[in-house]
Amino acid sequence: MSGIVGIFHRDGAPVDRDILGRMTDAMIRRGPDAQRIWADGPVGFGHAALFTTLEAERENQPATLDGQVWITADARIDEWDHLRRTLAAKGRDIPGDVTDVELILHAYHAWGEDCIEHLIGDFAFAIWDARQGRLFCARDHMGVKPFYYYLSDRLFAFASDVGALLANPQVPQRINEGRIADYLVGYLEGIDRTSTFYQEIYRFPQAQCRVIDRERHADRTYWALDPTKEIRLGSDDEYAAAFLEVFTEAVRARLRTPGRVGSMLSGGLDSSSIVGVARNLLREGGHGPLPTFSAISVDDENIETQIIRAALQMDHLDPHLLRSDELDGLVEDFEELYRETHDPFDTTMPIPQAMYILAQRQGLKALLDGVPGDNVVSLGFNYLTFLFRGGQWATAVSEAIGLSKFYHRWDISPWGLLFKHAKAAVAPTWWRAFRTKTTQKPRIEKVRQTAFINEAFARKIDLAGRIRMYEDQQRTTRTIREDHVRRLDHRYLVGVERYGRVAAHYSIEPRPPYLDKRVVEYCIGLGWKQKNYHGWTKVVNRRAMGGILPDEVRWSTSRQNLSTEFWNARSAAVRT
User: Fold this and answer.
1) Does residue 240 contact residue 545 with C-beta atoms inside 8 Å?
2) Closest CA to 275 of 557, 513, 503, 77
3) pLDDT tens across 41-79, in order?
């Protein structure tokens, strides 16, 4: 992980190195190992480094190969061998000690802006091409690496962190009051791809790139999930084997420089799968055990805690457990984030925050996590609607009963599920639109009251319009696979950004293998029975973990969330 900043004065004014330095220094938590700046006339870059890999220690960013094309990047590039061979075929001489950022530069020299089509990994970067007098910026496929920006006719400024942008006096600091309402409502966090708590500061969307010069700028989406691409194999075992292969490569890519990387381990299948594969890779490579970090209950009968302890029966692990009544020593670290964050949503995740604190205290630089495995490998309940529409009524009944059993701790009625999704399947579009419109006003009023939002403030920020904007994203799709793509869209990825901000506060790089482009594309291409079947979620994942995870973990059902327990314990620790 690194922090990147940049200033481009589109009016030709020279960059103030003091301002550039202040912006870079504002990311000291994100990049405590080295901070450097470079400026040339109207353009300047800054870089704050966290040495998560051996290759990163050899980087000297901002970097250049020829003095004409400069880059600042927060990047981990995968599939090195393939990329190096492809670049060699283009006539590039790639040295044996090449780094990630140098690979990006070689790719840019070979393909220009189309270099983005050849990169796999997690990255956010900006390239200044003095030969053409323009900037080229890009963010990775799933938005794992952050990229914030401010744009006017005179200035384009960007950074990995909002605080770095605010260190530039030319960047306005006007509060986005609509975002405050989003926070109070809660679920409106994912209202769009770009909002921040500041009016003129935006998040650059995932899978997009931008070219900008003095006169104009142009954005384009360079990649999108294809809901028409279907993967067909001969048997369940073949699907599971193919999943394990691509998932293992995703974990391997994120284990670079063992000894600096650990993993979260909750009671869920996602983090357990990561830990099971990672510890095998480390053992096979002759490396030490994998550090794991888990939040457990004071109640030993808690299902989540029992599953974690079952997972810890695997060998080659170095477990670190935190009970909810052991937070006293973490209080100041918790409160420090709350005082410094520029996004109040960051205060809503006490367990991941505690895990990052523990990992930092163990001297680690990166932490694997299972976010958002639920959305990548499984479906929601909406597939019942599509089964009804396809005339598979008996199958829909069987699935609803299975889902009720799987989520038995949620006390979900199969008949309630069937009624809801059968109604959605047969209701014509005009009726759904009419029903939504007639129930909208009381529904929005209930949301306003529940969120304790004043009526005048609700009108001022158009709360009704914001809720409608969010609800419009719940668009009707034609197929189960299209619905899966919709579920993986920005509404869920905004949570990944939150993990990244909180981790960065503790100088930890989060690495989510489930958001590997190759894993996501494979899972989208699967038929629905490989994702949800007879009520079981993440079916292909569970089958793939045979012989890797204990069956008690592999076939565990719905979990007991510990967030409330940890919230209460944190509040008690603060009071004392």
Assistant:
1) no
2) 513
3) 999 999 999 999 988 999 999 999 999 999 999 999 999
How many Å apart are CA 91 and CA 70, to the nearest integer? Answer: 20
Q: Are 284 and 313 contacting, i.e. CB atoms less than 8 angstroms apart? A: no
pTM over 0.90: yes
Contact between 366 and 1 (Cβ < 8 Å): yes
Concatenated DSSP letters of 478-533: SSHHHHHHHHTSHHHHHHHHHHHHHHHHTT-EEE-GGG-HHHHHHHHHS-GGGTEE
CA distance 109 to 129: 10
What is the helix (H) or strand (E) element at residue 422, kind and residue range? helix 414-426
Which of 367, 376, 368, 365 is CA-nearest to residue 515?
A: 376
Residues 198 and 494: beta-carbon distance below 8 Å: no
CA dist 438 and 454 (Å) reads 23
Query: Mutual orientation of helices 350-361 and 490-505 as an angle, nearest 10°?
Result: 40
CA 433 to chain centre: 32
Can you state the angle between helices 350-361 and 331-340, rounded to 10 degrees?
Answer: 110
491 pLDDT band, cuts 50/70/90, is low
Q: What SS3 state is found at 61?
A: coil
Q: For 30, how many CA atoms within 13 A lie in the half-sphere containing its CB?
A: 27
Whether residue 428 has pLDDT greater than 80: no
Note the pLDDT tens digit of each residue in 211-256.
Answer: 999 999 999 999 999 999 999 999 999 999 999 999 999 999 999 9
For the chain, how many residues are written? 576
Ranges of beta strands (E only) in 78-116 are: none
Tokens of 540: 């292909």
- Per the CB < 8 A criterion, the answer to whether 3 and 47 are in contact is yes
**E strand or H helix that includes residue 212:** strand 208-212
Contact 397, 363 (CB under 8 A): no
Q: How far apart are CA 381 and CA 419, in angstroms?
A: 12
- The angle that helices 517-525 and 236-253 make with each other, rounded to 10 degrees, is 160
User: What's the token pair of residue 348?
Assistant: 């809503």
Name the 3-class secondary structure at 296: strand
Contacts of 531 (CB under 8 A, 6+ apart): 377, 378, 379, 484, 523, 537, 538, 539, 540
Sign, Cα dihedral of 122, 124, 129, 134: positive
Look at residues 362, 338, 363, 365 and name the one whose alpha carbon lies nearest to residue 350: 338
**pLDDT score recorded for residue 430:** 64
Q: Reduced to 3 DSSP states, what percent helix, strand and coil does the chain have, rounded to the nearest 5?
A: 50, 20, 35
- Look at phi and psi of residue 534 and say left if phi exceeds 0, alpha if psi is from -120 to 50, else beta: left
CB contact set of 120 (below 8 Å; sequence gap of 6+): 77, 78, 79, 517, 518
User: How far is it, in rounded angstroms, from Cα 278 to Cα 280?
Assistant: 5
Collapsing DSSP to helix, strand or coil, 308 comes out as: helix
Residues 297, 304: contact at Cβ < 8 Å? Answer: yes
Helices vs. strands in the chain: H and E counts, helices first: 24, 19
